[in-house]
Amino acid sequence: MKQIQSLIACLALAATAACVPAHAQEGDWLSYRDAYRGMVAFEKYGKPKQFLQQHYQVSARDGSPLPPDFKLVLSGKSMQLNLPLDAVGRAVFPLLKAAYDENAALTINRKLGAYVFRPRVSIAVRPDGVYEGAELRAACEQALDFQRTVNAAGYRDKHCVGVRFTFAKKSDADVRWKGRDGAPLPVLSGPAFPDEAGNAYSVVTVRFDAATDKGQVISQNAPLALAPVFE
């Protein structure tokens, strides 16, 4: 019971620390019901969230990209669904009554202990690559408000300082402030999300300043992910 409660707490709080319980490692599966309880918190969240999106994310503990043949599968008495993962390990999580009632299993074709499983709230990517500075700040604030709702102690003293654009390679990472000097912002190696490990991606952090709300950020290529940055 303590192990199950530990998993529920970690998923519901979307904690930044790694959270894979002992029973999951032993049985090579995770409870859909437990994951559901963590994911449904965002669905029920009643405050503004129009700039946000939520996925169920799998990431390697060592920060390496997922193998090309990596699979996340939902299996129950009446179903077996492959949950496709994007380039940063996120899947659209189906909220299914039948899977909940059956307490279906979430499995991967690897050892669970090497991976972290969590709800992941991120900022929706714009197809035209044009982001109003004021909207980026609002998106970050919406994400912080949600995190404070599910984990008040962990986020009480955090502040929105910017957003992170993540790309597969450096040549794709061309992000600029429109109307400033026109130069692309610095590109570093890092994880897709600030609370992860590793340097598998090319990332650009757009930090907020006094002029943010009056400007636009232009990304020449669609990022793999767009994440709020809290400090």
Give me some keywords for this one.
four-stranded antiparallel beta sheet, disordered N terminus, signal, single chain, DUF2987 domain-containing protein, 6 helices, 231 residues, alpha+beta
Structural class: alpha+beta
Give the low-pLDDT segments.
Answer: 1-27
Radius of gyration: 18 Å
Strand arrangement, major sheet: 1-6-3-4
Mean pLDDT across every amino acid position:
89
- Number of contiguous helices: 6
Total domain units: 2
Query: Could you tell me how far the N terminus lies from the C terminus, measured between alpha carbons in angstroms?
Result: 34 Å
Order of SSEs: HHEHEEEEHEEEHHEEEEEE
What's the overall geometry?
globular
| Main sheet makeup | 4 strands, antiparallel
Question: How large is the share of residues in beta strands?
Answer: 25-35%
Q: What portion of residues is helical? A: 25-40%
Number of beta strands: 14
Can you characterise this structure?
It contains six helices and 14 strands. With 231 residues, the protein is of the alpha+beta class. It has two domains: 2-122, no CATH class; 128-230, no CATH class. It has a four-stranded antiparallel sheet with strand order 1-6-3-4. It has a four-stranded antiparallel sheet with strand order 11-12-9-14, with helices on one face. The protein has a three-stranded antiparallel sheet with strand order 5-2-7. Helix 1 (2-13) runs parallel beside helix 3.
